[in-house]
Every structure is written in structure tokens, then in C-alpha cells.
Amino acid sequence: MSAVEFVNVPRIPVGDWFEGVFDWVTANLEWLFDAFSTVIDVAVEGLVTALDAPGAVLMALIFALLALLVSGWRIAAVALVGLLLVIGMDQWATAMETLALVLVSTVVAVVIGIPLGVLAARSDRTSKVVRPALDLMQTMPAFVWLVPVVFLFGIGYVPGVVATIIFAVAPGVRLTELGIRNVDAEVVEAAQAFGATPRQTLFGVQLPLAMPTIMAGINQVIMLALSMAVIAGLVGARGLGGEVTAAIATGDLGLAFEAGLAVVILAVYLDRVTAALGQGGHLGRFRRKAKSDVGEVAADENQPDGSEDLVTASDVHTKIGA
Amino acid sequence: MNAIEAHGTYKVFGKRPAAGVARLKAGATREELREDGLTAAVIDASFEVREGEIFVVMGLSGSGKSTLIRMVNGLWAPTAGELTVCGEDIVKMNDKQLRTARREKVSMVFQHFALLPHRTVGENAAYGLQLKGVNRAERERSATEALAMVGLEGWEGSLPEQLSGGMRQRVGLARALAAGTDIMLMDEAFSALDPLIKREMQDQLVELQSKLGKTILFITHDLNEAMRLGDRIAMMRDGRIVQNGTAEEILNEPANEFVAQFVQDVDRTRVLTARSVMTIPAAGDGRLLGQPVAGTVAAVDADTRLSEVLGACADCEGDLAVVDSRRRLVGVLSRATLLQALGQLAADAAHDASADPASDTTPMEVTAR
Ligand SMILES: Nc1ncnc2c1ncn2[C@@H]1O[C@H](COP(=O)(O)OP(=O)(O)O)[C@@H](O)[C@H]1O
Ligand SMILES: [Mg+2]
Predict the structure, then answer these.
(1) How far apart are CA A105 and CA A168, in angstroms?
(2) What is the pLDDT of chain B when averaged over all its residues?
(3) Residue with CA at minimum distance from ligand 1 atom 21
(4) Same-domain pairing of B215 and B338
(5) Contact A299/A312 with Cβ under 8 angstroms?
(6) Distance between CA A94 and CA B332 in Å, rounded?
(7) Domain finish residue from B268, B289, B320
(8) Cβ(A180)–Cβ(A121) under 8 Å?
(9) Looking at the structure, do residues B289 and B249 belong to the same domain, yes or no?
(10) Do B300 and B345 lie in a common domain?
């Protein structure tokens, strides 16, 4: 018999400690959570009202138009068909509730995530603290922290939003950090060498150049938020998640399928539109514009035979060298 | 006043770098420090860059050139020693003062151009001025002017990605010029360019410098480039400046075997000037010295490279007059003297080659012995 079995590990009351901390938080920071709850609640309710206002079909057309503007007619057509299907399945109102929840969660996650990513990119120490925290938030089963969230925020949209933020914030932080760390070091050094302040370097160089990566992060935040928003149905955040929860409770297979399909349609729509924004967003659109405005004219004038180096070099030579 | 002055400047990377400097001063080698995880990038560097000259720092990769230049604009603080720029002590400056110094006094040109890809050529050229807070109209005017100086008029609205490498580096040059600083730092600025474009850029730089009188600290690992551009050259090796002088001094009196090996393959006729081989008329004819030379007389500038003097010499009947920039006589060059000098160069080169028994030995190993 090995000695190891005689070692008696005492019961470690980790759960009790956690409850202790939790009790202190509820007792002392209640005002903070109340204020946060109010803001989130108003935001989600307001957004739901706004999304419902024009009526289902008109709103679906507006969404399709948006897709047309950012990602082209093909995706717009598919989007329109999908959205009309959602209306046909009688899931439009719940889909808009879920969309509102996703958008509010995404905004909060981005507002927290991007600055955190910037800090992590600037300091290795911050990065070392942030990384495991993000891992924890993503790998801890959602149901585990749904419980404390409900304790703190009760039932409804707010715990849904909070749970969604916790689950979805990670890629926003990670990809912001990655994007900024991957900006060409020489370009950053150039900014510093010309006397840029850290602020000017961040806003004038690092963020613009990291933007495609950051947009990819935001796209992922939205996708994660959507998947979590469905689970949030369990804590009373209505929407498609609420439908799924109800369908499970009553064994209504048809309803579960329809709600699930609506989630998929919403997911595809959000993914395509935000992905297109990421690629053609700020930077890409700017480039395309600049190219068509001036670049082509300049290129035509100056590069008659395509050997741009030689031509301009000799230009220079005749102008300056002689 | 010197534009840049360094006295016993050190830069050591790693934990507790000051202790590393103390050990170097006590005689420890770079390798000994490396064993303890310290990198001695610049060791006891002393040099001065005079106003309006092109000062070249030349050395192999890893010899500490970039570290040196980054200390000059304060991106890295020296671990020990003195460093002044335009008479101001850069070591003692706080962040804000350093930023002001970079905006007002020193601009920089980078090896891979380091342009902002999301901004137009015009905006890139105006970048330094934008950071200074110059208003839009004025900085656009300066940027256009600087772009014209480097031969890029009309390209203001293009994006860097639409330009070739040589043109991008001209934008980099224009950005530094537009900033209006007296000092320009150039870290391997032409190293990424094709040989042909590189030559064009070198000529253009010399031209611009003589026109604008900028002080240029130019870094390169290419000896021929160093010889072409440098009024004076500092040879750097393993963090130390091993020799400091004009191209001719370095060619004629290499400070050690490392330098000698290094300069062995240089085409001396492209470095040595008419001044270095001319004869100075003695006694009777000496009174002609300093007198203006008539336009009809065949003459070459004293700073003309021998490779170019050859052509002029072949064309003329008798001796060549060697003149200064205002066409006053400073010496005489006969065919015989020229041929003699060339013969001597060839003999030297042959001697250098045969004197080195292990001709495959790299310069590094030679001095390490
Ligand atoms: N930030 C840094 N941290 C540690 N070591 C560095 C750093 N920058 C440069 N070095 C080291 O300093 C030495 C000199 O580098 P550098 O100045 O870039 O040389 P060069 O420009 O001549 O190629 C090299 O050994 C390099 O590895
Ligand atoms: Mg370097």
C-alpha cells in the first residue's frame, strides 16, 4: 500500500470563500450594480422598440439595404430571403430582442475590450495578467457563472447581457493586442522619431494599422455574443433564447427548430456584414477612394511604360543632377 | 559648434546594464558580457559630427550602428557617457524635451521607408509638420516643396503602396526634409534599394546636401557607399569605433588589420581625388597658386575622383590644372604623376593580397588573433 493514500487532504472550503467575497460585493457595491442594470435595461428596451418601430417587413428591407451597401447584392439578396423567412416563422419580434441583446453586449464588450487590448499590447506585464483571465472567462462553463450573475442582477435582459459580455469579450481584447503588436515596428519608430506623443502614435499609427485585425476581433465578439444570447434565455432574457428554453420545457420540437433556424439566419447576416466591414472598412474604403481619385491619373501620367523606377530616376537626374 | 558630439558613450542591453559598463571599463570583453545575458551594443563611442557634413558610420550588421543612431534622437538613452545634439545634452532631457528635440532638430530616414500606408504621399511628407502643429495649408505647401526637391511633384495624392521602392524612399527623404530640421539621421536608408536606384539616390543626397547644408549622419554596411557619401567615416566593429577619418585617411592609413582587410577591395580610383595625387608647384611657379585659372586651360576640380580625372587627362595635351571650387589653382597633375599614382595603387593592392597568407580569413578573425 503506498504512502500517498495515508495523506489526508483536508476539505478546502473554496466555495465558502467565494460566497464570502460574493456576499461582501452584494452588500457594498449594490448601488453600482443597480446603476449598471438600469443603463443596460434602458438600452436594450430602447433598442428593441426602435427595431420594432418601422414594422417587420420594412425593417427587413432596411437590413437588406445595409447588406447591399457593405457587402454587395448577392449577400443582400440572401439576407432578404432569410429575414423574410424569420418573419414567416413568426420569430421576428424575438429575433429583434436577441439582436438588441447582442448589439448592446457587443458595444459594452468592445468598449471594455479594445482599451484592455491596447494596454496589453503596451505592457508585457498587463498581457501576462490579462491572458489567463480571458482564458478563465472563456473556458469556465457558462452555467457556472450564470448563477452569480442572476444573484447580482436578477432575471431578465441584464443578466443575459452580463453573461454575454463575459463570454464574448475575449477575442476583442486578444485581437486588439495582436493587431497592435503586429504593426510594423519601424513605422512606430518613425512616428516616435518625428516627435509623436504616445497618444499620437496610438491614434495616428497603431490603431489605424491594426484596424483590420481589430475588426476581425469585433466580428468574433458578435458571433460569440449571439451564441451566448441563446443560452441567456435560461436566465429570462427573452428573445430567441427564451423561445428555445420554452420549447425545451414543453417539448415543442417545431418551435425549437424555428427559433434555432432564426438564430442561424441572424448569425449568417451579422457575420457577413461585419466581416465585409472589417475588410473594406475604414482602411480599405479609404484606399479604394484615394486610388480612383488621384492614383490612376498620376500613374497614367508618370508611368508610360511601366518601368516606373527608371523613368522617374532619370527624370530626377535631368532636373537635379544637371 | 559640432552638430553631434559623443564622448565615451555606452549602450548595454539587459539586466543591470550599468554594472555591464563598469565591467567593460575594467577590461571585460563583449563576449564575457554576453555570457551573462548582457549585450554591449555600443562601447565607448566618441566622435563628433560637424555642421553641414555627411558623417558616415560604417560597420557590419550587429556592430551597433542602429543603436548609436537611436541614441542620437533619444529613442534609447545611453547607459553611460555623454551625447550632445546641437550643443544640448540629450542624456538629461525628459520625454517632453526629447520630443521637442526630435520635432525641431533631428529627423530620420528609415531602411524600409516606414511610411504610413494609410496616408497619402503628401500627408506622409507633411507628417513631421503635422506633429509640430503646423496648420494644414502651410504643411501642405512645405510637403509639396519637399516632394518637388526629391523629384516627386504631382504624387501628393497617391498612396505609398502605389510607388516603387526608390520612390517610397524619396517620400521618406521628403518627410525628413519637410520637417525642416538641421540634422538628418539615415539608418541604412539606401540598403533596401536596387543598385541602380541606390546610385541615383546617393547622387541626389549629395546634391541636396550641398544645396541645403544639412548635417547628415548616415549609416551603412556598404563600404563603397560610405566612401561615396562620407566627408568623414567612422568604422564600427563589435560596438566600438575602430577608426574615424576621411575616406582617404582610412584607405591610406588603416588603423588596424580589420580596417585594412575591409578596405582592400575598394576601387581606390573611385575614392582618391585629384588633390591626393597632384603635385604642388614649388618655388618659381608657386606664385601661381591661388590665382584664377583661365577658362581655356584644361582643369579639374581638386575633389574630382581619379576615375574621372583619367578621362580628362586623356583628352588634354599637357598637364592638368587642379583648381578649387572657385577655379583658383591649387596644384598640377601631369600624365606621368597620374600614371605613377595608379601604378603605386596597383602595386599596393597586389602587396596586400600576397601579404595575407590565408586569404580566406575574414576580417573578423584577423583582428581577433
Ligand atoms: N532592444 C534590444 N535589446 C537587446 N539587444 C539589442 C536591442 N537592439 C539591438 N540589440 C543588440 O545590439 C547589437 C547591435 O545591434 P544594432 O545596433 O541593431 O546593430 P546594427 O544596426 O549595426 O546592425 C546586436 O547584437 C543586437 O542584437
Ligand atoms: Mg541596423
Answers:
(1) 8
(2) 88
(3) B66
(4) no
(5) no
(6) 98
(7) B268
(8) yes
(9) no
(10) yes
Could you tell me if B240 and B341 lie in one domain?
A: no
Query: The CATH number of the domain where B309 resides is what?
Result: 3.90.1280.20
Phi-psi region of B358 (alpha: psi -120 to 50; beta: other; left: phi over 0): beta
Average pLDDT over residues A84-88: 94
- Any A CB within 8 A of B159 CB: yes
Q: Is the pLDDT of residue B80 over 60?
A: yes
* Pair (B174, B295) in one structural domain: no
Identify the CATH homologous superfamily for domain A21-282.
Answer: MetI-like (1.10.3720.10)
Q: What pLDDT digit, counting tens, does each position of B188-238 carry?
A: 999 999 988 999 999 999 999 999 999 999 999 998 899 889 999 999 999
| Residues A299 and B157 sit within 8 Å (Cβ to Cβ) | no
Strand partners, B59: B236
Residue A143 grid coordinates:
452555467
- pLDDT for residue A282: 38
Specify whether the CB–CB gap between B74 and B90 falls below 8 A: yes
Query: At residue B220, what is the residue type?
Result: T
Domain boundary among B244, B268, B292: B268
The C-alpha cell that represents A132 in the structure block = 489567463
* A294 in contact with chain B, both atoms CB, cutoff 8 A: yes
Pair (B309, B336) in one structural domain: yes
* CATH value at residue B215: 3.40.50.300
- What pLDDT, on a 0 to 100 scale, did the predictor assign at position B365? 39
Which member of B99, B110, B162 has the closest CB to residue A190? B110
The number of folded domains in chain B is 2
Distance B61 CA to ligand 2 centre (A): 6
Q: Which of B237-241, B246-250, B350-354, B361-365 is predicted with the least confidence, judged by mean pLDDT?
A: B361-365
Domain range for residue B353? Answer: 269-369
Instruction: Name the grid cell of B281.
Output: 608647384
- Element (DSSP H or E) covering residue A86: helix A73-88
Q: Say how far apart CA A152 and CA B308 lie, in whole Å.
A: 86
Residue A310's pLDDT band (cuts 50, 70, 90) = very low
- Quote the ligand 2 centre to A46 CA distance (angstroms): 57
**What is d(CA A22, CA A19) in angstroms, rounded to the nearest whole number?**
5
Q: How confident is the model over B86-120, as pLDDT tens digits?
A: 999 999 999 999 999 999 999 999 999 999 999 99
Q: Whose CA is nearest to atom 8 of ligand 1?
A: B67
